[in-house]
Write a structure and sequence with these properties.
With 152 residues, the protein is mainly alpha-helical. The chain has one domain: Winged helix-like DNA-binding domain superfamily/Winged helix DNA-binding domain (Arc Repressor Mutant, subunit A), CATH 1.10.10. It has six helices and two strands, in the order ααααββαα. A two-stranded antiparallel ribbon has the order 1-2. β1 and β2 form a beta hairpin. The longest helix has 36 residues. It is globular, with a radius of gyration of 20 Å.
Length: 152
């Protein structure tokens, strides 16, 4: 076997590891950039995600399960996140009158206003993060990332 084939074989054997390591490293870098940006609004990335989920639901009332299933990180402590946002006045959390075990969660006007305040600078931050990629690169990257995830 030639030296070139041995080197290629070694690279190929390590390619899954290198790919996963690169994904984790890049994901952490994006998370840190996002966290740094949201800090000025006194929000964590996870809290921001909860507010976006509630905003997208509009008038529809959410519950803990709805929020948890929509979170980017399924490991998030949704109860703690919701409580912190409630204390900031960004959402309401009330027990259902029909079913006392069910909790109804809605974004407040203050929460919607905060999202509007964040929106423009968030778009700029997102563009800054992906500035080295073309539109075609972004489409390809999204296609590949979606292909990597199992389809439920």
């Amino acid at each position: 076997m030639s030296e070139e084939n041995e080197n290629e074989k070694g690279v190929n054997q390590n390619l899954p590891y290198e790919t996963i390591n690169n994904l984790l490293s890049t994901g952490n870098w994006v998370y840190e950039k996002s966290a740094e940006h949201l800090k000025q609004f006194a929000l964590s990335v996870e809290q921001y995600n909860v507010l976006l989920i509630l905003e997208r639901l509009g008038e529809t009332t959410a519950n803990m399960s709805t929020i948890q299933n929509s979170m980017v990180s399924k490991m998030s402590n949704t109860t703690r996140l919701v409580e912190k946002l409630r204390l900031k006045g960004l959402l309401t959390r009330e027990q259902s009158q029909e079913n006392r075990r069910k909790v109804e969660i809605n974004i407040t006007d203050k929460g919607i206003l905060l999202l509007k305040e964040i929106e423009k600078s968030q778009l700029l931050k997102e563009k800054e993060i992906v500035k080295n990629l073309t539109k075609r690169d972004l489409l390809t990257l999204n296609k590949l990332l979606n292909k990597l995830k199992p389809q439920d």
